[in-house]
Amino acid sequence: MLRRLCYLWTASLLHITFSGQLHSELTGVLDDCFCDIESIDVFNNFKIYPRIQKLTERDYFRYYRVNLNRPCPFWADDSHCSIKDCQVEPCPESKIPVGIKSGNYNRYSQVANANTDIVDCEQAQDLGAINSTLSNYSKEAFEDWARHDDAQDHFCELDDETSPDADYVDLLLNPERYTGYKGPSAWRVWNSIYEENCFKPRSVYRPLNPLVPPRGGDDDGEGFYNWLEGLCLEKRVFYRLISGLHSSINIHLCAEYLLAEGWGKSLWGPNVQEFRQRFDPAETKGEGTRRLKNLYFLYLIELRALSKVAPYFDRAFVNLYTGDRQEDRATKELLLQFFNETKAFPMHFDEKSMFAGQKIEAKTLKEEFRLHFKNISRIMDCVGCSKCRLWGKLQTQGLGTALKILFSEKEIKNLPEHSPSKGFQLTRQEIVALLNGFGRLSTSIHQLHSFRALLKEKR
């Protein structure tokens, strides 16, 4: 009994310490920015989060076309999930909206309306609704767009939307949450991302992967971060984007953790202990706070991209086509309102500070940056858990689309008002990934606020 009381007392002290450390350290101005964390919290939780939640529930944004059967291009993966919730749920009885499943690979409503192929939703073991038919007109149009897209600054390895292995998945029926996917397979994915794709010279022995303990055991990470700060802005940004994405995914898994599994319905909810293991400054040797700051940094990057791409959607002929005019009109109205909120944020990241050196060197660095990130998008096909792969591909593609937008300023400014542009285009797949990916970041910051409150309650 006495031992139990001592344990509870010690645990309560740890909660108090962590809550206090988190509150005191996760504050102030972010590195490489002119924005403070408190402003982002207020802006996101009161203005952005409610809007992005409503937006991603609309039919246009809830169905994501993805190929979950692409083989890993780097190694053979034979891992299996430890629980049934790893699998992507079969297609629901309700059908995919006509405008989406009728081969809407294009960007514009008038072409979508020209194609009326309708294929009923099929049941599959691991995947969502399938549409494997395309009219000849759609195939020709898609090939034409693809040729122009090849010249774009793609930061991701995009799935072939015409592939018979590409399927529609209802994101609302397949929420991102804990699946039990961990161990050597999951570690290999993140290790490859950090060790082989972040900009790291051989002289730096400390792993970039925050899940791997530093060599020697006594390194508090300050030497590593001193080195990181010595990099050029672009390479620092790259690491912070990857770290921020990793942190966001970890928060989702902690917030939607499998607390109990019975014969009836599984119980999902926040796991405070899991959150502490990943972000407690004491348990992570101070890195937990850095990881969370990188989440805020990533949020700013994608927020800036959304504010810059608004003119693309503001044109009258661009329609978020589902086949239901009332639904389409309401969705676009919500989207434009959302863009107005993003543009109103007063402390945006200044992307012009990147790749601003000598023209040839800047171009070379930008291409290196792009290829490193594109390689990370390919690594997502090595994730051994279907649901983890789904959300990993979506969030990586969302960030890749944001980067594409940030570095297409001239093309966006020169968009024709009343006709499609071959200089800058977005596929429906990119649009859905962009908004849902940012929705995940917004949710992470909102959930972080909830974890703070839970830790405070446990004092």
From TrEMBL:
<dbReference type="GO" id="GO:0071949">
    <property type="term" value="F:FAD binding"/>
</dbReference>
<keyword id="KW-0274">FAD</keyword>
<keyword id="KW-0285">Flavoprotein</keyword>
<dbReference type="GO" id="GO:0034975">
    <property type="term" value="P:protein folding in endoplasmic reticulum"/>
</dbReference>
<feature type="binding site">
    <location>
        <position position="246"/>
    </location>
    <ligand>
        <name>FAD</name>
    </ligand>
</feature>
<feature type="disulfide bond" description="Redox-active">
    <location>
        <begin position="81"/>
        <end position="86"/>
    </location>
</feature>
<keyword id="KW-0676">Redox-active center</keyword>
<comment type="similarity">
    <text>Belongs to the EROs family.</text>
</comment>
<dbReference type="InterPro" id="IPR007266">
    <property type="entry name" value="Ero1"/>
</dbReference>
<feature type="binding site">
    <location>
        <position position="278"/>
    </location>
    <ligand>
        <name>FAD</name>
    </ligand>
</feature>
<keyword id="KW-0560">Oxidoreductase</keyword>
<keyword id="KW-0732">Signal</keyword>
<feature type="binding site">
    <location>
        <position position="177"/>
    </location>
    <ligand>
        <name>FAD</name>
    </ligand>
</feature>
<keyword id="KW-0472">Membrane</keyword>
<keyword id="KW-0249">Electron transport</keyword>
<feature type="signal peptide">
    <location>
        <begin position="1"/>
        <end position="19"/>
    </location>
</feature>
<feature type="binding site">
    <location>
        <position position="190"/>
    </location>
    <ligand>
        <name>FAD</name>
    </ligand>
</feature>
<keyword id="KW-1015">Disulfide bond</keyword>
<feature type="binding site">
    <location>
        <position position="243"/>
    </location>
    <ligand>
        <name>FAD</name>
    </ligand>
</feature>
<feature type="active site">
    <location>
        <position position="388"/>
    </location>
</feature>
<protein>
    <submittedName>
        <fullName>Endoplasmic reticulum oxidoreductase 1 beta</fullName>
    </submittedName>
</protein>
<dbReference type="GO" id="GO:0016972">
    <property type="term" value="F:thiol oxidase activity"/>
</dbReference>
<feature type="disulfide bond">
    <location>
        <begin position="121"/>
        <end position="156"/>
    </location>
</feature>
<keyword id="KW-0813">Transport</keyword>
<keyword id="KW-0256">Endoplasmic reticulum</keyword>
<dbReference type="GO" id="GO:0005789">
    <property type="term" value="C:endoplasmic reticulum membrane"/>
</dbReference>
<dbReference type="Pfam" id="PF04137">
    <property type="entry name" value="ERO1"/>
</dbReference>
<feature type="active site" description="Nucleophile">
    <location>
        <position position="385"/>
    </location>
</feature>
<dbReference type="InterPro" id="IPR037192">
    <property type="entry name" value="ERO1-like_sf"/>
</dbReference>
<dbReference type="GO" id="GO:0015035">
    <property type="term" value="F:protein-disulfide reductase activity"/>
</dbReference>
<feature type="binding site">
    <location>
        <position position="179"/>
    </location>
    <ligand>
        <name>FAD</name>
    </ligand>
</feature>
<keyword id="KW-0325">Glycoprotein</keyword>
<feature type="disulfide bond" description="Redox-active">
    <location>
        <begin position="385"/>
        <end position="388"/>
    </location>
</feature>
